[in-house]
Amino acid sequence: MQLHDIVLRGLRRRVGRMLLLIASLAIGVATVVALVSITQSLQMSIGHRMDTFGANIVIVPRASDLALSYGGISVDSASYDVGEMVLSDLEAVRTIENARNVAVMAPKLVSAASIGSEQVIMAGVQFPDEVRLKQWWRVRGVYPALPNEALLGAHLAESLGVEADDTVVVEGRTLHVVGVLEENSSQDDYILFVDLKLAQEITQQPNRINLVEIAALCHDCPVEELVVQISEVLPQARVTALRQAVTLRMEMVGQLMLFTVIVSLVVTIIGSLVVLMTMLGAVSERRQEIGLFRALGFRQRHIERVILGEAFIVSLMGGVLGWLIGVGAVTVLQPSVAEMADMVGYMHLDPLLAVGALLGTLLIGLGGSLYPARTAARLDPTIALRAL
After folding, report:
1. Which of 112, 109, 114, 106 is nearest to 175 (CA)?
2. What is the spatial distance between Cα 194 and Cα 111, in angstroms, rounded to a whole number?
3. What is the pTM of this model?
């Protein structure tokens, strides 16, 4: 009789105990697989949201006496004209090594303007880029599409008594207010947004810009590298990373990963203890059988192989079953998780996770069976046979 025959017969004789052990391992593996898959998807979702919702790099002309008030631009000072940066300079950004990571570039000309007797901050923008950059914007009315149309922040519109479809006179020019931003508790609430070319005409600064906000995709390129590369092609500008946004993303990703690691460790420890206690119980029940094997000439290593062989088969079955359950759980949970986290299209299953789950289960099973296997191998056959 071969050792593998003894292993299979041993499993069939204790099918109830082994099924319980397989179920325990499968539940642990399924928990880890589902948790890791969802965590990875959440990380991708968070990365996407942080990359596409708002700027994480700001470019302004170099100046030593600039007081910042809006995106790095001071407009309440007589010296808000801070240097030379023109719209065509941004073409150089498209040539950097990591240009593919630049999702949105939103150039602006920020200046002071008057509406009647009231002084306001006017931002000349390219509306398609600005709307892509600020996806949290909600507007009563529509976004400007023509050069003589304007968009007002909520507080500015309230102070002027202006609603969508009204008109305002800015520096002698009559503009049609086609939309009013809903309040978003930012400086945008106080800004008059007009077309960039119109702002350049009003301020008599053709092709001039003094602020560029960039939404950069930083999941495969650190934002600091982009800052260095942009600085090299725009030596006349100061390029700054909004470290608060980048740090927030990294902290959130780190917390998710830490939570996953802690839960995985707890599941691993519990799984190892379950295997240890189950296999110890099996060895105790098989004292006479093991003693008979030893009396028939089985060496200690043969006994160890029998116990570890059973643990290998049980662990392999538990790993495969756990992986399937985990995949099913992720599939079932995907709609609700996607709805909560805006993760549609981000739920995925990593093939390496399947390999890791199987290898991890085998390590847990074999590791938890080492002591029972050694205990069985060292069992004195004379003592074991006395009960026969």
Report:
1. 114
2. 11
3. 0.56
